[in-house]
Amino acid sequence: MSAAPQHNPTMARMSLAERLAPHAPVLLIVGLMILGLIAIPSTSSWLTLTVSGLAMGMMIFIMASGLTLVFGLMDVINFGHGAFVSVGAFVGISLLLVLEQMTGAPALWLNLTAMMVAIVGAMAATGLMGWAFERVIVKPVYGHHLKQILVTMGGLIVVEQLIIVLWGPEEIFINRPEALKGAITFAGAALEKYRLVAVGIGIVVFLAMRWVLRRTKIGLIVRAGVENGEMVEALGYRLRLVFVGVFIAGSALAGLGGVLWGLYQEVITAQMGNHTMILIFIVVIIGGLGSVEGCFIGALLVGLMQNYVAFLEPKLALISNIGLMVAILMWRPMGMIPVVKAK
Amino acid sequence: MLTKILSGDMPRSTALAVVLIAILIGLAFAPFIFPGVRSVDTAARISIFIVLVASYDLMLGYGGIVSFAHTMFFGLGAYGVALASTHMGRGFDALLVGSVSGALIAALLALLIGLFSLRVRAIFFAMITLAVASAVAVLVSQLSGLTGGEDGLSYKIPRALGPAFKFADGELFGVRMDGKLLKYYLVFFSSLILFLVMLRIVHSPFGRVLLAIRENDFRAEAIGYRVVHYRVAATCISAAIAALAGALYAIWLRYVGPDTSLSMEIMIDILLMVVIGGMGTMYGAVIGATLFVLAQNYLQNLMDVAANAVTGVPILPDLLNADRWLLWLGVLFILSVYFFPTGIVGRLRQPR
């Protein structure tokens, strides 16, 4: 009987670069912040810009997350996603205008209740609309990208025009709730209260979404569906129903994002959805289509970049995001966190 | 002879042939048949939009790529002519330099965008073009020193193309022989030539490969065609021709501004024209553009009448308001993508 051959494998120590590589997207945010700190002369204005960049990023994330999940799950690219942003903003802001007594009062809890009412109303409206949109516009063109792009774009035009019919063509100006006006001073930097609230809501939404996707059965089905839909169906789950659910949830989130964005800009127009779509697309592309984490990181990068550059060189703000997208696509052509599909 | 000019793509339907000939005659003799500033202006717009829409169809109907930057290419050509005419003074050399450099820049930009997005996924192209086009639109309105910002640029074109220039005395069928007539025919014949060139391109071996890619890109790649190369080439050609159409538009209007050459509305108009006329056939562009421009100019008046007729009924007047005509076009657009994806031309060519 011969002895087993000597076998003692040695693990080569991973180099620092190799260990950092999986976290590169997150490190990119930190890197961008440090770059900003170097480029921007005063620390206090850097802090202000960082907070507003994060707030903007969170809002874009809330709007974009639905789009990226819908794509990942069913390969449906919805160019009409911006319509939900507009409708959410209009419904939410209209509710806030109705509840003027509550938003005008200096009491924080009254203000927050009014905002909750507006947000819930907007999400219900856009969720319902998402269901109808999926039924009428998206369902007949499954599996056909070209038609999807055309038809959803048509849907966006129709919804935009309907908003003008219902609310009139003028832009609507809105005051933020009384307690969320103004800023607090922290370390010499003026931080707008509303932006801090937006950052808070964004983090809550992201964590909730992560929890649902990672810790619940439905999340498991969604993640499996993104990876290999056919297999999930073969195991007996009705992926179509799950997809409709995700579409509705994504639309509702876009509505929430619309309310937040409207209050952030303090003005809403029927075209706002179309305008935000541009940032949303940049975010989902650099994040990797279908990836929620990538979308989150991408949104923060875009938000920070936009705010830093707008401070340093205002005219370059939108171009800088295109530049960011080009740079990231050169580095990772499928986006920062590419979604691997089992074929 | 005719087959050769049309690159072998005969209308293959009597109704289609009649419509096409009617459009051709209408445009060729527009200043004589429909005298009047407005109708000649409409005819010139139709000629230019036929080229623009056909170039878009080269990308969408033949390449299977959706772009939202076509107005950007159109605008590049228009601003090329405008800037050249402003800085080089009036003259045909300025027009030539402006159009050629506009077309080159458009093709270069299309090459860059194409290389970045098409190598990964064709749908990336749609999103990236949307982002880039809006960035360019913002940039144009911000760089007001160069581009005139929101106000746009007005400039002078060669005297030979203006109403003050008379190349012959007297009148022909009641039409004055002035530079305006020359300008119309410059636009008309340039459009006709560009259109025939595109017809030639789509019926060349190159066009056949594009069709194969549209039908099944995986298979085309397997047969041995580099799909990315073909798609990028189609994009570049399409962008260059769109820029030339923009240059013609700039010559015709003697004005460029963000609203006339860069806005998202024009992009939506182009999409509608392609889909309504019929994707994947050049003749679809002719019919789509003609119908659409006519509707745009004359149907809006009709909607006004309809809106006045129903005053008093809630919401209806708002829905029928002439400013809301995009709403109805949007509905029409969705319905036509569903129910007749081959458009008017496809319907006419269908064997009964």
Task: Explain how this protein is built.
The complex is a heterodimer of chains A (343) and B (352). With 343 residues, chain A is mainly alpha-helical. Chain A has a single domain, classed as ABC transporter involved in vitamin B12 uptake, BtuC. Helix content of chain A is 73%, strand content 3%. Chain A is built from 14 helices and 4 strands. In chain A, the strands form 2 sheets. A two-stranded antiparallel ribbon of chain A has the order 1-4. In chain A, helix 3 packs antiparallel against helix 13 and helix 4 crosses helix 12. The longest helix of chain A is centred in the N-terminal third of the chain and has 32 residues. Chain B has 352 residues and is mainly alpha-helical. Chain B is globular and about 65 Å long. Chain B starts with a helix and ends with a helix. The mean pLDDT of chain B is 84. Classes of the chains: A mainly alpha (343), B mainly alpha (352). Chains A and B meet through helix 7, helix 12 and helix 14 of A and helix 7, helix 14 and helix 17 of B.
- Terminal Cα span of chain A: 46 Å
Model regions low in confidence, pLDDT < 50 over at least 5 residues of chain A: none
Element-by-element helix/strand order of chain B: HHHHHHHHEEEHHHHEHHHHHH
Amount of beta strand of chain A = under 5%
Low-confidence stretches of chain B: none
Q: Biggest sheet of chain B, in brief?
A: 2 strands, antiparallel
- Identify the overall geometry of chain A: globular
Number of domains of chain A: 1
Strand order of the largest sheet of chain A: 1-4
Q: Fraction of residues of chain B in helices? A: over 70%
Question: How are the secondary structure elements laid out?
Answer:
The complex is a heterodimer of chains A (343) and B (352).
Chain A lengths: L15 H5 L3 H16 L3 H32 L6 H18 L1 H5 L3 H31 L6 H23 L4 E2 L9 E4 L2 E4 H23 L1 H11 L1 H6 L4 H27 L1 E2 L3 H16 L4 H21 L4 H15 L12
Antiparallel strand pairs in A: 1-4, 2-3
Chain B lengths: L1 H4 L8 H15 L1 H4 L3 H26 L7 H19 L3 H26 L4 H21 L1 H4 L5 E2 L11 E7 L2 E4 H24 L2 H11 L1 H7 L3 H27 L1 E2 L1 H4 L2 H14 L4 H28 L6 H5 L4 H15 L3 H7 L3
Helix pairs in contact in B: 4-9, 4-12, 4-14, 4-15, 5-6, 5-12, 6-7, 6-12, 9-12, 10-11, 10-12, 14-15, 14-18, 15-18
